[in-house]
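Entry type: protein chain
Record version: 2
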Amino acid sequence: DLAVIDLDMPGLNGVELTAAVRAKPGLRDLPILVVTARGGAPDWQLLQSMGANGFLLKPIDAYALIAMARRALRVAAEPA
């Protein structure tokens, strides 16, 4: 399983959704990739501290997304 979320969503933004996912015991290890048309280093630092696994700027390069997803899933599958 892998979550790909947008930083700028109506209602619940990407930071709020990342926090909500991490607060659920069964989802604490779910890999999260965040995409955005806006944002930068401060956003990524905050999301990384919350447990997000990757941050991509739009327009998204499909190969970069696939590589990041594979890396996040591989890390998630490693024994703790």
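Comment: The chain has a mean pLDDT of 93.
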